[in-house]
Write a structure and sequence with these properties.
It is a single chain. It is elongated, with a radius of gyration of 15 Å. The protein is mainly alpha-helical. The chain starts with a helix and ends in a 6-residue tail after the last helix. The longest helix is centred in the first third of the chain and has 27 residues. It is 81% helix and 0% strand.
C-alpha cells in the first residue's frame, strides 16, 4: 500500500468513525428534533455523489468510507422523515 492510499484509508476511517456515535444516539433515542431535514438531505446527496466519484476513480478509501456513511446517513434521514413530524393529539 502506498503512502497516499494509507493516508486516504486513515482519513476515511476517522471521518466515518466520528459519525457513528451521533448515528447510534439517534437510533437509540429516535430523537431527530435537532436534525435539519434540508441539511441532512443535502449531506446525504453529497455523500452519495462522493461514493459515485470514488467508484469512477477506483479510489477504494473514498468508496468504503462513503458506502458506510451513506448507509448511516440514509438511516438517519429516514428516521427524520418518519419520526420528525410533530404528532397532533
Amino acid at each position: 500500500m502506498q503512502l497516499g492510499e494509507f493516508i486516504g484509508f486513515c482519513a476515511a476511517f476517522l471521518t466515518t468513525a466520528s459519525f457513528i456515535p451521533q448515528a447510534w444516539l439517534t437510533f437509540k433515542s429516535r430523537d431527530v428534533s435537532g436534525i435539519s431535514l434540508g441539511m441532512y438531505s443535502a449531506f446525504t446527496l453529497g455523500v452519495a455523489l462522493w461514493l459515485v466519484y470514488g467508484l469512477t476513480l477506483g479510489a477504494w478509501p473514498v468508496v468504503v468510507a462513503n458506502t458506510i456513511t451513506l448507509a448511516l446517513a440514509l438511516s438517519i434521514l429516514v428516521m427524520k422523515l418518519r419520526y420528525g413530524r410533530k404528532r397532533r393529539h
